[in-house]
Amino acid sequence: MSNTDTLPPADETTDVNPVGGIDQAVGDFQYDVNYEFDAGTGLNENTVRYISSVKKEAPWILEFRLKALKTFLEKPMPTHWATTDLNNIDFDKIRYYLSQGQKPKRTWDEVPDDIKKTFERLGIPEQERKFLAGVEAQFDSEAAYSNIKDIVAKQGVIFCNSTEALREHPEIFKKFFGKVIPTGDNKFSALNSAVFSGGSFIYVPPGVKVAQPLQAYFRINAENFGQFERTLIIADEGSEVVYMEGCTAPKFSTSTLHSAVVELVALKGAKIQYITVQNWANNVFNLVTKRGVAHEDAEIKWIDCNIGSRLTMKYPGVVLKGKRARGEVVSIALANDGQHQDTGAKMIHAADDTTSVIVAKSISVGQGRSTYRGQVHIPKHLKGCKNNTECDALLINTNSRTDTYPAITVRGDTHAVQHEASVSKVNEEQIFYMQQRGLTEAQAMSLAVNGFVNDLVRQFPMEYSVELKRLIDLEMEGSVG
Amino acid sequence: MSVSSLSPSPTEGLSSARFEQHLSQRSYLPAWWLEAKAAAWNQFNTLPSPARTDETWRFSNLNTLDLEGFELPEDASQHIPNLSAFPHAAEIIFSNRQLVARSAVPSDLLAKGVIFAPLDEALRSHGDLVREYFQKLPANLGSEKFVALNTAFTGSGAFLFVPKGVEIAEPFVVQHTLSGANKATFPHTIVILGDNAKATLVEFFVSADNGRHLASGVNDLHAGPGSQLVYVGAQNWSRDTLAFQTNSIVVERDAKVLSLNVHLGGRQARHESHSRLLGPGAHSEMLAVTVANGAQEFDQRTLQTHVSPNTTSNLLYKNALLDTAKTIFSGLIVVEPDAQKTDAYQKNRNLMLSDDAEANSLPGLEIQANDVKCSHGSTSSRIEPEQEFYLQSRGIKPQAAKQMLVFAFFEEVLNKLENEDLHTALRTLIESKFKK
């Protein structure tokens, strides 16, 4: 496989990409790695037992995994509402666990060269020095590197991967694990529950406000590999944390599966902001379940940006469990040729005076297809709940496609729920105006598309928004003419 | 207790024997029609009942779609509610599937070639014309099983044909009345407007008593090039009625169709409406007003299919929800790849008047062309307290103020009807529900 590494190595003297891999060309390389642990191809009880045994897990976890495997096998593919492209996933041809060991390194010097090279090329160590409070870098099934700045660790913040957390903090982990997203939530959450490995575990003690973001980077390196990270973030009362994740994979000739489960718990008055920039290669099935529970006066905000993958199905959700809790999803999706971004949001109101906001913007380029799927649920006997949903779709080419499928349930007469969606193309007059000021059509188109998402991109941390703009420019290059 | 568990006794209920009997009583009708009925009966028995995994039945109550015990009524009812107290061109009234009254079509219209007749009569006199349009483009929004049941047993319904260039201002009226315990009716109305023709058809569906009723109606509405069709369907079935109505609206080049459905009665009422815009300049205005109270469930599914470029559609469905009522609105705008310059709009507004009412809204879009203007909106909220306060400050009692605001809510829809008399008749009908 080493011959796939045809790109020249990153030039140390040029500017390092602040968000590694947001540009797919940057992520499209692969180094040959010898895996010490390999669960083989295909999925059965032995695969699950193997994963559990190399991780030296407690018996309850193995039991949890085996039960989940059963649920996964029993559940049908959700193709009665989702795309039939799901049927193209061959679960027997996937490798479910690959690692060089279960203990992440604390310094980049200790990380094996081949893996370190990967992350250096993606710019991860550089970013860590610049603006992050902690970094976890996952390479296939396990974290290769995990570190948290001393100043943050001293505040009592725990930041490690799920394997470590299960060993070192079982009391907190077990209390919240699988509570926000039960195993049987859907077929892919069951799959993740059976074979999960890696992912972040964060605990922020009461009142602690983590000043800089914590970041995880997920890298798929091996062909036919399935990555199943499991992330659990708990923000204790009155605390605040920002978490960012990025991801890439090289382009293989066969498809790859990424199926994560992310659970967030914001206790009373806590704030969690979860930022994802997904830029998987165009043959990755990205089927992710993400949900948070917001207790009284707590706030959970998902910023979800989907640019890569062949098929993404991801609907970050917030269960508004405590009074005055607030949930927000900001979603940007860009679907180019051969891509289907099936994204959206879920807002489950479960207490009085809870508020939720969904803003989704999608751009379909070429034959790309973007789909918004959303759910807003306000059940019986609640008072004063509010939801506002806005979905805007921009279609660039004549054969681009977009769909909107919201589902809104409201019970009672004290709520205010509003949904709006619109579909449009780039304004010809704007393009004409820009062109007559000397811009090329592609430049004008890029500017218009950037303008379309600008109000959302501004909510991203600086480093991400700059890169996102650059990426949109790249995607738009071939879209006109 | 599933849809297919019909009464086993040979000629009772909606059994195969009863179907054979129904068919043999109609041997005077064209062979293609009888064959279509036989095929539909077969289809009804083979099609599965709606299941929880059917997206087209999302949020619907499936445990209450019980057809057990329903039978075709034998005799017409004595009592026929009078709903057409407004000027009309002609009217056809069915009671318990029997033709009980009809007024003659004015001779000048007959001279111009207008046909307005019960379906059975039209099948004999203009069989080929009926055949050309009968279920030519079925709605296909989930109720295929109940549409098949309609085709199998339909015997009532009207056929309206307005030839090229004929414009008729006064509406045609069709009324379907049902009475007695466990009685079922399967009306099928077909409307065909020729090039540049203009006509209005108003259809009433009512129960004459509080009996347990089943109704599955189907309409084929076809607007030829440049024509203008107004279709109003107002339903006030008994509170123990399971009702299905499936409408297919076909709009050709430069034609305009306005369809308005008023939903008042029924225990569980499902309404499907599919507009197909087949030629440039075609426009479909899809409107509905629903008053849901008690434990009623109103289930409305719509589809706006833009097949041709330069077509427009506008949907406005308004529901007022009281008590423990439940509504479902599931709408979809489909813009096919060639339908550039489409302008489509879809809006569902739910007025929540009770803390126990439930509104479900699924406004959808599927867009495959880029040069389009498409948007949808859905809101669920109560009466604006400021508006209530304003009216009260002008000396209007709270109850009256509330009612005034509910009617103002519906007026946006009803205002789209140009015929004043019809507008008044419908408003009176809606008001009657609040008076009970």
What does this structure look like?
The complex is a heterodimer of chains A (481) and B (436). By secondary structure, chain A is α/β, with parallel strands linked by helices. Chain A has helices at 24-27, 45-54, 59-74, 113-121, 124-131, 150-154, 162-168, 170-176, 187-195, 428-436, 441-457, 462-477; strands at residues 37-38, 98-99, 134-139, 142-148, 158-161, 200-204, 214-219, 226-227, 230-235, 240-248, 256-258, 261-266, 271-278, 284-294, 299-306, 311-314, 317-320, 326-335, 340-349, 355-364, 369-378, 386-395, 401-411, 416-425. Chain A has two domains: 2-314, no CATH class; 430-481, no CATH class. In chain A, a hairpin with a 2-residue loop joins strand 3 and strand 4. By secondary structure, chain B is an alpha/beta fold. Among the domains of chain B are: 16-278, no CATH class; 384-425, no CATH class. Chain B is 22% helix and 38% strand. Chain B is built from nine helices and 20 strands. In chain B, a hairpin with a 2-residue loop joins strand 1 (90-95) and strand 2 (98-102). The A-B interface holds A 80-81, 380-381, 393, 395-425 and B 53-55, 58-59, 337, 340, 350, 352-382. Strand 24 of chain A pairs antiparallel with strand 20 (373-381) of chain B.
Notable characteristics:
heterodimer, A: 481 residues, alpha/beta, twelve-stranded mixed sheet, ten-stranded mixed sheet, 12 helices, 24 strands, disordered N terminus, B: 436 residues, 22% helix, 38% strand
In whole angstroms, the N-to-C terminal distance of chain B is 32 Å
Q: How many strands of chain B?
A: 20
Which sequence of SSEs, written as H and E, runs from N to C of chain B? HHEEHEHHHEEEEEEEEEEEEEEEEEHHH
How would a textbook summarize the main sheet of chain A? 12 strands, mixed
Structural class of chain B: alpha/beta
| Category from helices, strands and their pairing of chain A | alpha/beta
Most extensive interface between two protein chains, with residue counts:
A-B, 36 and 39 residues
Radius of gyration of chain B: 21 Å
Question: Radius of gyration of chain A from the CA trace?
Answer: 22 Å
How much strand of chain A? 25-35%
